[in-house]
Design brief:
This protein is mostly helical and 171 residues long. Helix 1 packs across helix 3, helix 4 packs antiparallel against helix 8 and helix 7 runs antiparallel to helix 8.
Length: 171
Amino acid sequence: MNNSPIGMKPQDILILLKIISLGNENWNQMSLAESLYMSQSEISQSLARSKYSGLLDGSGKKVMFRTFFDFLKFGISVVYPVKPGTIVRGIPTAHSAEPLSDFILSNEMYVWPYPFGENRGQAITPLYPSVAKASLIDKKLYELLSLTECLRVGRLREKNLAIEHFERILC
Protein backbone atom coordinates (compact mmCIF):
# COMPACT_ATOMS: atom_id res chain seq x y z
CA MET A 1 0.00 0.00 0.00
CA ASN A 2 1.26 3.50 -0.86
CA ASN A 3 1.42 5.97 2.05
CA SER A 4 2.21 9.00 -0.12
CA PRO A 5 0.07 12.12 0.20
CA ILE A 6 -2.53 12.42 -2.55
CA GLY A 7 -2.51 15.63 -4.59
CA MET A 8 -1.97 19.21 -3.59
CA LYS A 9 -4.70 21.31 -2.00
CA PRO A 10 -5.23 25.08 -2.30
CA GLN A 11 -4.13 25.70 1.29
CA ASP A 12 -0.73 24.25 0.38
CA ILE A 13 -0.10 27.32 -1.78
CA LEU A 14 -1.11 29.62 1.09
CA ILE A 15 1.28 27.84 3.46
CA LEU A 16 4.18 27.96 0.99
CA LEU A 17 3.59 31.68 0.42
CA LYS A 18 3.56 32.23 4.19
CA ILE A 19 6.91 30.45 4.54
CA ILE A 20 8.30 32.68 1.78
CA SER A 21 6.89 35.79 3.49
CA LEU A 22 8.82 34.75 6.60
CA GLY A 23 11.98 34.60 4.50
CA ASN A 24 12.43 30.91 5.29
CA GLU A 25 13.13 32.05 8.86
CA ASN A 26 12.87 29.64 11.70
CA TRP A 27 9.22 28.74 11.95
CA ASN A 28 7.23 25.93 13.44
CA GLN A 29 3.91 24.36 12.59
CA MET A 30 2.08 25.98 15.50
CA SER A 31 3.16 29.49 14.51
CA LEU A 32 2.07 28.84 10.91
CA ALA A 33 -1.26 27.48 12.12
CA GLU A 34 -1.90 30.51 14.32
CA SER A 35 -0.93 33.08 11.69
CA LEU A 36 -2.99 31.39 8.97
CA TYR A 37 -6.01 30.55 11.15
CA MET A 38 -5.67 26.84 10.40
CA SER A 39 -5.32 23.75 12.51
CA GLN A 40 -1.89 22.30 13.23
CA SER A 41 -2.93 19.03 11.57
CA GLU A 42 -3.80 20.90 8.34
CA ILE A 43 -0.34 22.47 8.40
CA SER A 44 1.33 19.10 9.02
CA GLN A 45 -0.55 17.39 6.18
CA SER A 46 0.13 20.29 3.84
CA LEU A 47 3.86 20.27 4.55
CA ALA A 48 3.94 16.53 3.83
CA ARG A 49 2.19 17.06 0.48
CA SER A 50 4.52 19.92 -0.45
CA LYS A 51 7.59 17.93 0.49
CA TYR A 52 6.35 14.93 -1.51
CA SER A 53 5.64 17.11 -4.55
CA GLY A 54 9.10 18.71 -4.43
CA LEU A 55 7.89 22.18 -3.44
CA LEU A 56 9.72 21.87 -0.09
CA ASP A 57 13.24 20.56 0.38
CA GLY A 58 14.04 17.23 2.04
CA SER A 59 13.92 18.75 5.52
CA GLY A 60 10.44 20.13 4.85
CA LYS A 61 11.53 23.62 5.95
CA LYS A 62 12.67 25.46 2.81
CA VAL A 63 10.59 26.29 -0.26
CA MET A 64 12.12 25.13 -3.54
CA PHE A 65 11.80 28.51 -5.21
CA ARG A 66 12.36 27.56 -8.85
CA THR A 67 9.94 24.63 -8.74
CA PHE A 68 7.33 26.73 -6.94
CA PHE A 69 7.80 29.61 -9.41
CA ASP A 70 7.27 27.22 -12.33
CA PHE A 71 4.10 25.87 -10.72
CA LEU A 72 2.75 29.38 -10.17
CA LYS A 73 3.68 30.47 -13.67
CA PHE A 74 2.30 27.49 -15.55
CA GLY A 75 -0.09 25.64 -13.26
CA ILE A 76 -1.94 27.75 -10.72
CA SER A 77 -4.55 29.08 -13.15
CA VAL A 78 -5.22 25.57 -14.45
CA VAL A 79 -5.29 23.73 -11.12
CA TYR A 80 -7.09 26.45 -9.11
CA PRO A 81 -8.99 28.61 -11.63
CA VAL A 82 -11.31 31.39 -10.50
CA LYS A 83 -13.84 33.66 -12.18
CA PRO A 84 -14.83 37.06 -10.80
CA GLY A 85 -18.17 36.95 -9.03
CA THR A 86 -20.76 39.41 -7.78
CA ILE A 87 -20.01 42.80 -6.24
CA VAL A 88 -19.22 42.41 -2.53
CA ARG A 89 -17.45 44.18 0.31
CA GLY A 90 -13.91 42.95 0.80
CA ILE A 91 -10.15 43.36 0.61
CA PRO A 92 -8.55 44.27 -2.74
CA THR A 93 -6.60 41.52 -4.48
CA ALA A 94 -5.02 40.60 -7.84
CA HIS A 95 -4.34 43.75 -9.90
CA SER A 96 -6.43 45.83 -7.46
CA ALA A 97 -3.83 45.45 -4.69
CA GLU A 98 -0.16 46.32 -4.33
CA PRO A 99 2.21 45.82 -5.94
CA LEU A 100 0.27 45.62 -9.23
CA SER A 101 -2.16 48.46 -8.47
CA ASP A 102 0.84 50.78 -8.94
CA PHE A 103 1.18 49.61 -12.56
CA ILE A 104 -2.35 48.82 -13.68
CA LEU A 105 -5.17 51.33 -13.82
CA SER A 106 -8.52 49.60 -14.04
CA ASN A 107 -12.16 50.33 -13.39
CA GLU A 108 -12.54 46.72 -12.25
CA MET A 109 -11.89 46.08 -8.57
CA TYR A 110 -11.31 42.50 -7.42
CA VAL A 111 -11.72 41.68 -3.74
CA TRP A 112 -11.67 38.74 -1.40
CA PRO A 113 -15.05 38.78 0.34
CA TYR A 114 -14.58 40.07 3.88
CA PRO A 115 -17.34 41.64 5.97
CA PHE A 116 -15.03 44.29 7.45
CA GLY A 117 -13.41 45.21 4.12
CA GLU A 118 -13.47 48.85 3.10
CA ASN A 119 -13.73 48.28 -0.66
CA ARG A 120 -16.38 46.95 -2.99
CA GLY A 121 -15.56 44.89 -6.03
CA GLN A 122 -16.04 41.64 -7.84
CA ALA A 123 -15.61 38.67 -5.51
CA ILE A 124 -12.58 36.44 -6.01
CA THR A 125 -12.89 33.16 -4.15
CA PRO A 126 -9.63 32.85 -2.18
CA LEU A 127 -7.49 29.72 -2.11
CA TYR A 128 -8.53 29.16 1.51
CA PRO A 129 -11.23 30.79 3.66
CA SER A 130 -8.75 32.51 6.03
CA VAL A 131 -6.76 34.24 3.27
CA ALA A 132 -8.30 37.70 3.79
CA LYS A 133 -7.87 37.64 7.56
CA ALA A 134 -4.30 36.26 7.39
CA SER A 135 -3.28 38.85 4.80
CA LEU A 136 -4.29 41.68 7.12
CA ILE A 137 -1.55 40.76 9.62
CA ASP A 138 1.27 40.10 7.12
CA LYS A 139 1.90 42.70 4.38
CA LYS A 140 4.40 40.50 2.54
CA LEU A 141 1.97 37.57 2.52
CA TYR A 142 -0.75 39.93 1.25
CA GLU A 143 1.44 40.97 -1.71
CA LEU A 144 2.33 37.35 -2.53
CA LEU A 145 -1.31 36.26 -2.35
CA SER A 146 -2.43 39.19 -4.53
CA LEU A 147 0.19 38.28 -7.14
CA THR A 148 -1.02 34.69 -7.00
CA GLU A 149 -4.62 35.79 -7.49
CA CYS A 150 -3.53 37.81 -10.49
CA LEU A 151 -2.11 34.62 -12.01
CA ARG A 152 -5.43 32.88 -11.33
CA VAL A 153 -7.77 35.57 -12.69
CA GLY A 154 -5.75 38.16 -14.60
CA ARG A 155 -5.48 38.94 -18.26
CA LEU A 156 -2.22 38.35 -20.15
CA ARG A 157 -0.64 41.73 -19.33
CA GLU A 158 -1.55 41.41 -15.64
CA LYS A 159 -0.26 37.85 -15.49
CA ASN A 160 3.01 38.88 -17.11
CA LEU A 161 3.49 41.65 -14.53
CA ALA A 162 2.76 39.20 -11.71
CA ILE A 163 5.27 36.74 -13.18
CA GLU A 164 7.92 39.50 -13.32
CA HIS A 165 7.31 40.31 -9.66
CA PHE A 166 7.44 36.66 -8.64
CA GLU A 167 10.62 36.14 -10.63
CA ARG A 168 12.32 38.94 -8.68
CA ILE A 169 11.13 37.42 -5.39
CA LEU A 170 11.67 33.72 -6.05
CA CYS A 171 14.48 33.35 -8.57
